[in-house]
Model the fold of this input.
Amino acid sequence: MKNIIIFGAPGSGKGTYSEEIKNRFNMGHISTGDVLRAEIKNGTELGKIAQGYIDNGQLIPDDLMINILASKYDSLPAGKGVIFDGFPRTIAQAEALKKMLEERGDSLGMMIELIVPEDVLMFRLLRRAKLEGRADDNEETIRKRFEVYHNQTEPLSRWFEAEGIRHTFDWGVLLTKEGMIEAILAEVEKENA
Done:
């Protein structure tokens, strides 16, 4: 099974779609958000450092994230493929991830890009903040996260295009969560046939 990178703006549904793919194809799943939240909850040194960056709407330093991801990747069963949810977010991170995978005889596989209008993203993030009590999902921090995404992360889409592994799914065309899920699962199946 190919590795999969789930890519999209904050609130685009990366975790939701990752879960669907993971369950359907029995893949490993690495969510940088979940890994970081666990570190913060456990009060680790990494968690304290990460909290400072998150509180300011900034990205975690690359070398720190690659080391965390390499360790997590190595702990998962080989050959089943892994979904990377929330990483990479910059070209430098993508290049570091590609190198880390190549060192293990693996590749990036495919990138699934979720395209969702910003007003829908804001609504979803504010709703999630209320439901889950997430302090990092307030309007000011969300706007900072969108700005970081547009300036630092969005250009990565072209990098994946150049690698020949970019597959886009547009909420505005598919309109429903179910439509997105069906289209994504069909594409993953096709890529792994």
The radius of gyration is 16 Å.
